[in-house]
Amino acid sequence: MGRWTARLKFFNFKELNHGVGLSLPPTTPIPLALNTPVQLASIVLKGINKNDRELLEATVGHSLIIGTNLGGNIAAGTNFNYTILFSITRDNSPVYATSDTYTFTTGTVITTPVVTPFILPGGVTTSMIHTETGISGKHTYALFATLTAVTTAGVAAPAATLPTGVVPNIIGPINLSGFVIDENEHHD
Predict the structure, then answer these.
(1) What's the pLDDT band for 57 if we cut at 50, 70, 90?
(2) Is the pLDDT confidence value at 140 over 90?
(3) What whole-number distance in Å separates Cα of residue 130 and Cα of residue 54?
(4) What is residue 119's predicted lDDT score, i.e. its pLDDT?
(5) Phi and psi at residue 17, in whole multiples of 5°?
(6) β 53-66/166-181 pair status
(7) CA proximity to 166, closest of 49, 66, 57
(8) Radius of gyration of the chain from Cα atoms?
(9) Cβ of 167: how many Cβ atoms within 10 Å?
(10) How far apart are CA 156 and CA 166, in angstroms?
(11) What's the CA gap between 149 and 34, in Å, rounded?
């Protein structure tokens, strides 16, 4: 009989407001280039014992942005697709990765010139959770985003690129949280 309890030993987080809209204050979106990792946030967890458990949670908002350098009109019914690999490292070594794919189909023609850049509707928020045990000490965790694939399909011939001026961006929110949870204790 008895009961088991665990206690939170340490908590740290990093939250950045990127993008437009409800971010206060508005900041610049983070453009992604193919196969180029971008560090979004990092935190330090300390006071970790070997029997403790570490819990990491991350959330990242992303979408396509149409820029003022749009290379030409985009037909209605054009599909834009991209895939982002999100990864978490501990002391510069990978410990977790997941990917998310975004698809957007234009409902109307997007014409040039584009006077003001705009975010295409229907952006995505990707969330992830990673747990660890068996480590000790103080560790730095970092969250990265890497654009791994882009395609355009629809009215025109499929392409392994996006049109000039159509760029996947991290638009926010960006959050990386880490918890150090003490080993379970038994109480009679």
Answers:
(1) very high
(2) yes
(3) 8
(4) 84
(5) -95, 110
(6) antiparallel
(7) 66
(8) 21
(9) 20
(10) 15
(11) 7
Phi, psi of 128 (to 5 degrees): -145, 155
Question: Global pTM?
Answer: 0.86
Cα(77)–Cα(156) distance, rounded to whole angstroms?
Answer: 10
- Read off the pLDDT of residues 114-135 as tens digits, 9 standing for 90 and up: 888 888 877 889 999 999 999 9
Q: Which bin fits 148, alpha (ψ -120 to 50), beta or left (φ > 0)? A: alpha
Q: Which two tokens stand for residue 139?
A: 């560790």
Terminal-to-terminal C-alpha distance of the chain: 7
- DSSP-derived pairing of the beta strands 137-153 and 79-90: antiparallel
Report which DSSP code applies to 21.
T
Nearest CA-CA partner of 62 in 94, 96, 38, 29: 29
